[in-house]
Amino acid sequence: MMKNLLILMSFALLFSASCKKDEEAGQPGEITITTSVSNNVVTYTASASDAVKFIWDLGNGETPEGATVTGTYYFAGDYTVKCTAKGRDTDRTKTITQKVEQGDPNIGNEVNKLLCGYDETTGESNTIWMWIDEENTFADGPREGEPDTVYFNPIDTTYWHNPAGELPEAALDDEYSFKLNSTMSYVNDFKTEFMVNWAWAASRGYATPTIWEDLAYAGYEAIAASWSVEHIENINDTLQFETYIGGTMMSGAYVIHLTNDASIGMESAGHDYQILRLTEDTLWLRYDNTFPEDLSMYDANELANEGVNPGEPDEAYLTLIRKQ
Fold it and tell me: Which of 193, 194, 231, 273 is the Cys-Cys partner for 220 at CB 3.0 to 4.6 Å?
């Protein structure tokens, strides 16, 4: 009798342990993080058993995904880095402190200073950019007769053909700010409503428009994002670019990169913005407003009439002014 009882208890313990193991199988194991530092760029690699995805907060405004990611730090300092290992059922997180000895020596360059209105005396970034409701301040491409290139040159405001009063009121109170701080914060303060490109809005599930126009979306939430400016050297003799920065015509293209699907002007598929011209008071931009690959929800005849090919470049142009 005692022997049978012991056998039953053993089976019960094994069954309990098996159930517990099954319950915990959906949670990743302990996270291991290794780092490699090169100047102001840090490479992070994470591993954890049973993890299906890794999501990072690098402490500098960047939130990439992947087992191995890199982060760029513009200022020296100690950064709190969090890695989240996603499991089938639950998640596990690990936080480390990453010391960055060297920042970017060119962070205070003229382009960044003009974009953010950096005051060296106070250390504050003061510039706020807004839409301007005047003639020739906005255009939706692509430009007919122009070859498709990664970057467009030169600025041609004769193509920016909108009449005054055409821009929607929901966009005119939006304010955009670039902060020269440890997280390189980008702020899109769209007040009460935010403008979304119609196709992108529908693909995100915000709306299903029946007409071809940009629309205001009141339920959109602000996104915490960071920014950086990349200087693109001239590629070859055919693709030669010049950018008017301040009072100087400079060689090459300058491109603003935004993280976390953030945007300038309106929510769209493009998050890289070529600076065509930048002065203390005015910012001319070009961006790729590419339509989503999946346009199956739209009427095929209407798409054909508009000449839209999903995934192909659809350029747009935008003029912003500094808020006085």
Answer: 194
Which domains are assigned to the chain? 32-100 (2.60.40.10), 110-322 (no CATH)
First to last CA, the chain: 91
Query: Residues for the chain: how many in total?
Result: 324
What's 172-202 look like in SS3?
Answer: HCCEEEECCCCCCEEEEECCCCEEECHHHHH
Question: CA angle at residue 159 from 217 to 281, to 5 degrees?
Answer: 70
Q: What would you report as the CA-atom Rg of the chain, rounded to the nearest whole angstrom?
A: 25
Lowest mean pLDDT, pick from 19-23, 108-112, 157-161, 198-202: 19-23
* pTM across the whole model: 0.79
**Pick from 271, 272, 287: nearest CA to 319:** 287
Residue where the block lists tokens 């009141």: 218
Compute the average pLDDT of residues 140-165.
69
